[in-house]
Every structure is written in C-alpha cells, then in structure tokens.
Write a structure and sequence with these properties.
heterodimer, A: 140 residues, 4-stranded mixed sheet, 5 helices, 6 strands, B: 93% helix
C-alpha cells in the first residue's frame, strides 16, 4: 500500500496536469481520469477521491454562486457579472438561483468570499446581538 | 505511861490524882481505850481512809484529765472550726474564681459563636445576593432572547410581506454599487 503522503503528492501532480492556463480543462480531466482507471494502480480510488476534491475546490474557487430573493433581471445580472469579473478576472462560472429564504437582497459567493446583503443576513446578525445563536430562529 | 503515872504519884502528884479522881479517870481503862483507839485508827487509816483517799485522788485525776481533755477538745474544735472557715473561704474563693473563669469562657464562646454566626449570615447574604444577581442576569438574558426572537420573527414576516419588486431591485443595485466600489 502506498504511503498517504505519496498518494497526495501524485494526486497533486495529476491535478496540475488537469489545468490549462491556470484553469481546469475538462478534456484534460477526462483524459487523466481515463488513464487512472485504465492503469488501476494501487490506491487509485484514493487518488481519484483526492483529485475530485481538488477539482471541486478549484471549480468552486472560480464559480460565482449568486442567490437572490427574487429572480434577477437580465440587466442586473450583467452588472453583477461585470463587477465580479472586475474583481476576480474573466473565466468565472456563473450560477444564478432564487432563494426566498433570503427575504430580500442578494448573496454572492465566490470561493471563500461571501458578499451577503440579504435581509436574512441582517436578521441573523441582529439575532446574534440578542444572544440567539440558532440562526434558524430567523424563520427560515 | 502507867510507870509515869505511878512515879508521878509519890512526888506530889496528889493534885493530878485528885483531879483524876474528880473526873473519874480510870487509868488502866483509859490506857486500854487509848490503845484500842489507836488500833482502830490504824486499821481505819489502813483499810478505809487510804482507799477512800486513793479513790478521791483517782477521781480528782480523772476529773482533771476530763477537764484537760475538754480543753483539748475545745482547742481542737476551735482549730477545726478555724480550718473549716479557712476551707470554706478557700472553697468560696475557688468557686468564685471558677465562676469567673466560666463566665469569661462563656463570654468568649458567645463572642466566637456570634462572630461565626455573623460571618455565616454575611456569607449567606453574599451568596443570596450573587444568586439573585445571576438569576436576574439569566432572566434578563432569557427575556432579551425571547424578545429578540419575537422581534426578528415579526420583522422577517413583515419584511417578507412589504418588500416590493422595486425594493428588491433597489437592494440588489446597492449591492452591485458596493461591489463596483470594492472593485
């Protein structure tokens, strides 16, 4: 059985093979996964799991998850995209969704960055000031 | 004696003879009586008078001894009385001292117990005060939480109802503006 460190190191090398110009290339990913499945080295399942985790993190880092209480009009979507592109650069994947739990406003998540101007966030903040730790008390 | 009487008779004892005759003295009879009297006296002295004297002397000595014993008993009694008084005085002083010591000890114990009771009372008061403060703080926190929850739920419900599409759009636009400023 391969040591865990060696598997992690090889997984990172395979992950780097999946990138093109610093972004995940779907064709390369398919090729790498195909090769791994063909070779069936020892620990290939662990390697695939690690690769999936790294790819998920990378995709999430380059995905803008935009939630709003009501469907966003097209012009607002464009303005949001433009602003985020200015901040994070081109190549972001966009995910727009309606989330009525927000009550009002918009919530944007890119990687680990979160821009939350929703009413729900304000209410959760208010609840914390009242000593209510359970954010479900907001009425989600 | 008889010889003296016989000798005195020729020298002129006629006078004595005359007196003796006058008084009817019968010299042999008298001499015999004198002798028998002396014998009686000697016998009385030997067998009656001396035992009586001895008995009287014994009695006197006994009385003297009794008096001496009485005096001695009186002295001993007085001494005993004096000792008894001393013992009583000593016992009285000792009892007084013991009572004073007992009172002092009782005072000390009373003061000690009083201090202990006061300290315990103060501690109980402090603990009760702390418990009351904690309970009040807990009640205030609970009240604050419940009021906050009520406020938040009410606000959420009302906000959900009163927000118009224009409000929603305005809120998103404000977010976009802030993003632009951040960019």
């Amino acid at each position: 059985m391969k040591p865990r460190k060696q598997v992690a190191r090889e997984t990172k090398q395979l992950f780097r093979l999946c990138l093109r110009n610093g972004r995940v290339d779907e064709d390369r990913v398919r090729l790498v996964v195909h090769r791994i499945l063909e070779s069936r080295h020892r620990g290939y399942l662990t390697m695939l799991k690690g690769l999936l985790r790294l790819l998920s993190t990378e995709c999430e880092r380059h995905t803008a998850d935009i939630q709003s209480a009501t469907p966003l009009p097209f012009d607002l979507r464009e303005r949001v995209q433009a602003s985020l592109t200015t901040i994070y650069g081109p190549g972001l994947a966009w995910s727009f969704a309606q989330n009525t739990v927000l009550i009002g406003g918009i919530r944007i998540k890119v990687g680990n960055d979160v821009y939350d101007s929703s009413v729900r966030f304000a209410l959760v903040d208010l609840a914390r000031s009242f000593g209510i730790q359970n954010e479900f008390a907001v009425g989600t | 004696m008889t010889a003296l009487v016989l000798l005195a008779e020729p020298q002129g004892g006629g006078q004595i003879q005359q007196i003796a005759n006058t008084f009817g003295v019968d010299w042999p009879h008298l001499i015999a009586q004198i002798i028998s009297f002396c014998i009686v006296c000697a016998l009385l002295y030997r067998y009656a008078y001396r035992p009586v004297l001895k008995m009287l002397e014994d009695r006197r000595l006994q009385i003297a001894q009794g008096l001496a014993d009485t005096e001695q008993i009186k002295a001993q009694l007085a001494d005993t009385e004096r000792q008894r008084q001393q013992v009583l005085l000593s016992a009285d002083a000792q009892a007084t001292k013991l009572i004073e010591e007992a009172r002092a000890a009782a005072d000390r114990v009373l003061q000690h117990e009083t201090r202990k009771a006061m300290t315990a009372g103060e501690q109980i008061l402090v603990k009760a005060h702390e418990a009351a403060v904690l309970e009040r703080a807990r009640m205030l926190a609970d009240l604050k939480r419940e009021v906050g929850q009520l406020v938040i739920q009410t606000t959420a419900g009302i906000t959900r109802k009163i927000l118009t599409p224009e409000d929603q759009r305005r809120m998103v636009e404000e977010t976009v503006k802030r993003l632009s400023v951040a960019a």
